[in-house]
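INTERNAL AUDIT FORM
Audit reference: QA-55
Scope: verify that the stored structure record matches its stored sequence.
Auditor: D.O.
Record contents follow.
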Amino acid sequence: MAFVCAQTSDSIMAAHLRTKGVKICDGNSVQLLKTGHDKFEDMLEAVRNAKSFIHLEYFNFRNDSIAGLLFHLLAQKAAEGVEVRALYDAFGNASNNQPIKSHMHDSINALGIKLVKFDPLRFPWVNHIIPRDHRKIVVIDGKIAYTGGMNVADYYITGIPGIGDWHDMHMHIEGPVVNELHEIFCRMWYKATKEYIAGEKYFPTKNPSQDNLRVAIVDRHPLRSADAIRDLFAEMLNTAQHKVLLINPYFVPTHKVRKALKRAIDRGVDVQILLSAKSDIPLTPEASHYVGNNLAKRGAKVYLFHGGFHHTKIMMVDDLYCTVGSSNMDARSLRCDYEVNTVIFSRKVTKELTDLFNEQLKSSTPMEKGYWGTRSAGKKFQGWFGNLLTPWL
């Protein structure tokens, strides 16, 4: 029998976030950007129209045509007197197969763009691997923000050879919650540069949007809010009453989230999980499928997506509210990195994501109960071994 409560899950979640010190802002608008084409078309137009400042925080900028176009536009805006600050993660850049080289970094700065590496890699290197800045935040003139799961790379539009289309999710946000995202950027900018950004120019007072959506920003900072997103995922699962839909890459949840998934299944919640059949990182598909197989045996509906790679990070609860963010459902995101997730208390936005989920099922197959038995011994070992790497928390 499904979990029964006098309150709806969205009201319980809102109350929980407030107890954790998370501000819930009214008066916002959220536009889902469901493809790389949608994201970059929308964001580049906003960059062209910027009047005061453009602030960007990314895990990496891949040295390809879309990044080249972005930096060309940023240089034009800097020449017009618009302040441009861009922060990228040094490890994220180094792990990218087309990184920004040192001479390119210097050339970009010479164009008037303040381009900064977060936590440059230095000997003995290992002490700089964890934690890393995995967020994706852009704020323009304090009026528009972009956040979600996409970095800056051509493959969000063109896909990857051998894998296919790259699926991901981003958002165009306006309203008071933009300041919440901007505060995160400004704290990281100060951490990296010691430049303090404040004042009405950067944090303007905003009028509520016509959409008037309630939105919360959940920020994971390793020192200030280490449990924030792990707690968010677990609480969404713990308070779900009817249905949970979930897409997340590198799906090897930590113990707290895994327990919440099992509890939701056991009390009769319709838990549906979409996993990619392929991945851009070796080992991760088998590790994710190992977890998915165990949850399917317990009663979850688990699907394997064959239409490319799903890098999307979304969860929808009871058709009432949802989260979209940068955080993977694995130990690195939940225990190590700087991450940011947006919680949207909107039936309309949640339905949009639900419709997307259902559309993706057309390119998916159910993970049947005998699925794991069909895997080779090597694949089974990879799945088992990958799960040993998950911290038991």
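Auditor finding: record pair retrieved intact. The first strand starts at residue 24 and ends at 33.
Action required: none
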